[in-house]
Design brief:
The protein is of the alpha/beta class and about 375 residues long. It has eleven helices and 18 strands. It has two domains: about 240 residues, FAD/NAD(P)-binding domain, CATH 3.50.50.60; about 80 residues, D-Amino Acid Oxidase, subunit A, domain 2 (D-Amino Acid Oxidase, Chain A, domain 2), CATH 3.30.9.10. Strands 1, 2, 8, 9, 10, 11, 17 and 18 form an eight-stranded mixed β-sheet that branches. Strands 6-5-13-14-15-12-16 form a seven-stranded mixed β-sheet, with helices on both faces. β1, α1 and β2 form a beta-alpha-beta unit. α1 packs parallel to α3, α8 packs antiparallel against α9 and α10 packs across α11. The protein is globular and about 65 Å long.
């Protein structure tokens, strides 16, 4: 039975980039993927610059489009635009993007097992046996990078109700050339196009990714709001469209990120941004943190767990907790939010662009800052 230092479940950006960093540092690593690569992956495909600059290799070969300007709309009355020298959002398709990272990881000796669905984990004192659809292997560490619903996390003992999962609906849409040319140069977010959430239009190379997401986990007719949003952006004719519904974890798990040498990263851990629901950049970042922890610990289990939690709590988890508060305020306190945005909307947009670029994080004193801004408006 083949043994590895680390087995990673899932070949998305978090799993593949983690494999890259581990193998580059001499850690024997296997990447276990239930499908055959490249494979389609449901995702809006908007990759923010803070994630792109964290990747140690060029991704230009899989870039669909780059956008230096972002537009945020709040109905017909408020419109904010930000511009940056570097691309704030890079559009990618996840099949080619994920496959590129996997190929980069394989260059450092990562073993890729495709069409291997993980069925069970068996724990012993010094190793974990992974039972897959095509046989068994063992590893000292297992990293769950298998997305929001993470079967690996369930097998390892995590509960399902320890994260906030929000609903989203995305369509890959082909439209007439006239409509595409009208929309192809603008990345836009429309706040309140759906109750307690937003809609987006992400132009790709020759089609649009159009979607809606609610910041509340509630029963809602997403398709109805998607159809309304098409009217908002002036689309009346659709040549083809493919629908993809999914859930986005926008809060960190409350029952930990490590159990019995199983480590959670990316969406499996609940690391998507609570305000924007963007998850690729934090998936890659958390993968780098867990790889660094294992390498620095020299494969010592207790030390790796300690280091990983320290690294998470240094920046990522506090930022997400602040983002959770800000998200709840932003999407649920509409009257106060709109008062603030009328005066400080451009400042807010610039701050969000800085977050997308990794130049700042959500302020730790956000409650005090908001209180002061509201006080100045009503006094």
């Amino acid at each position: 039975m083949k043994h590895y230092d680390v087995a990673i479940i899932g070949s998305g950006p978090s799993g593949a980039s983690t494999a890259f960093h581990l193998a580059k540092n001499g850690i024997s690593t296997v990447l276990i993927e239930k499908e055959t690569l490249p494979r389609y992956k449901t995702c809006g495909g908007g990759f923010v610059y803070r994630g792109r600059k964290d990747l140690p290799f060029d991704i230009s070969s899989v870039v669909e489009r780059e956008f230096h300007t972002i537009d945020i709309y709040l109905g017909d009355k408020l419109h904010f635009k930000t511009e940056r020298e570097d691309p704030t959002v890079t559009m990618i398709m996840r099949d080619s993007f994920d496959h590129l990272i996997v190929k980069k990881a394989k260059e450092f000796g990562v073993t890729l097992l495709e069409d291997h669905k993980l069925k069970k984990l068996h724990f012993s004192d010094d190793k974990i046996t992974l039972e897959t659809s095509q046989g068994e292997l063992t590893a000292k560490f297992v990293i769950a990078a298998d997305g929001a619903l993470s079967p690996t996390a369930k097998m390892a003992g995590w509960k399902e109700d320890t994260r906030k999962l929000i609903p989203a609906l995305e369509y890959e849409v082909e439209v007439p050339e006239e409509d595409f040319n009208r929309l192809k140069d603008e990345v836009r977010f429309d706040i309140d196009a759906i109750p307690y959430g937003y809609a987006w239009n992400f132009p790709k190379k020759n089609h649009l990714s159009v979607g809606v997401a609610s910041a509340r986990r509630t029963k809602i007719n997403l398709k109805e709001y998607y159809n309304e949003y098409l009217k908002t952006i002036g689309i009346t004719t659709i040549l083809s469209e493919s629908q993809h519904g999914f859930q986005i974890p926008v809060s960190p798990r409350t029952d930990g990120f490590v159990k019995n040498n199983v480590f959670l990263i990316g969406d499996a851990a609940g690391f998507a941004d609570p305000i924007t629901a963007e998850g690729i950049s934090n998936a890659i970042y958390s993968g780098k943190l867990v790889a660094d922890a294992i390498v620095e610990a020299n494969l010592d289990s207790a030390k790796a767990e300690e280091l990983y939690l320290e690294k998470l709590n240094e920046k990522l988890v506090p930022e997400l907790e602040t983002g959770l508060f800000l998200s709840k305020w932003f999407y649920e306190q509409k009257t106060l939010r709109n008062m603030v945005l009328k005066k400080y909307g451009q400042h807010f947009s610039e701050a969000m662009a800085d977050v997308f670029h990794g130049k700042r994080s959500y302020p730790k004193d956000i409650k005090k800052s908001l209180a002061n801004k509201i006080k100045s408006l009503v006094s």
